[in-house]
Amino acid sequence: MLEIFKSLPAGGTIFNSLTVLIGSSLGLLIGKFIPEKLQENIFNCLGLFTMYVGINMMLGMKHSIAVLVSLVLGSVTGELMGIEDRLNRLGDTIKAKLHTNNSRFTEGFVTATLLFCIGSMAIIGAFNDGVRHDPELLMTKGVMDGIAATLFAGSLGLGVLLSVVPMFIYQGTLTLLAVWAEPFITADMFANISGIGGLMILGIGLNMLKITRIKLGDMLPGLVYVVFLTMIFA
To answer: CA torsion sign, 147 to 128 to 54 to 60?
Structure first.
């Protein structure tokens, strides 16, 4: 199977998208058979595991000050651009066009989009696929995302399935950019990108557990800032 996706442009992203589509579809089919309390328990388990993934990633950062400043600058930029609000409006627009009454549609769309797009596996995996034609890391991520999508779709509904669109665009674009960007990305940059991504994923876990309501979408520009600040601090 690995060889098949190696031969395809952005093969890792294609595999990842397929697993999310299959997982989400399965979740939509079996979700109604899962008791509400069990869905809540599963959702809490996902929240706890998401926090673990975030903590594990953030511990690998090399320059904590660069990550902190990037996170702050990213939040300010994101707030000025209204990224979180735009994501919410996009989810509401799709919800209206599909005439769905699922009150958690937007939450599912935004949460799944952030979870599937943020993190070192998405970024480094896309770079590996684009530069080395090695989709294995993204395929590993795809299996994890497919399992998560099954559980998310069961509790959050159709929005999880639709999150495959921004994920495909995001990872596919990163893969294409990787061809020329890879020579400029150092080990420290990868580590700090993973660190800031881990902080955001930790925030997703806290939001899932309803401990906080952090506007994580507004922090996304921090992933760009951290590359340049790492060059300064390094």
So the answer is: positive
Residues 130 and 182 sit within 8 Å (Cβ to Cβ): yes
For 157-201, write each residue's pLDDT tens digit.
888 999 999 999 999 999 998 877 778 888 898 889 888 988 988
Count CB atoms within 10 A of the CB of residue 68: 17
pTM: 0.78
Q: Phi and psi dihedrals of 216, rounded to 5? A: -70, -30
Q: What are phi and psi of 101, to 5 degrees?
A: -100, 10
- Around 39, how many Cα atoms within 13 Å sit in the side-chain half-sphere? 16
| Residue 102: per-residue pLDDT | 64
pLDDT, one tens digit per residue, over 197-234 is: 889 889 988 998 999 988 888 998 998 999 999 999 87
HEC readout, the chain = CHHHHHCCCCHHHHHHHHHHHHHHHHHHHHHHHCCHHHHHHHHHHHHHHHHHHHHHHHCCCCCHHHHHHHHHHHHHHHHHHCHHHHHHHHHHHHHHHHCCCCCCHHHHHHHHHHHHHCCHHHHHHHHHHHHHCCCHHHHHHHHHHHHHHHHHHHHHCHHHHHCHHHHHHHHHHHHHHHHHHHHHCCHHHHHHHHHHHHHHHHHHHHHHCCCCCCCHHHHCCHHHHHHHHHHHHC
Task: Output b/e per residue, 149-169; b: 16+ Cβ within 10 A.
Answer: bbbbbbbbbbbbbbbbebbbe
Token pair of 29 as six digits: 């089919």
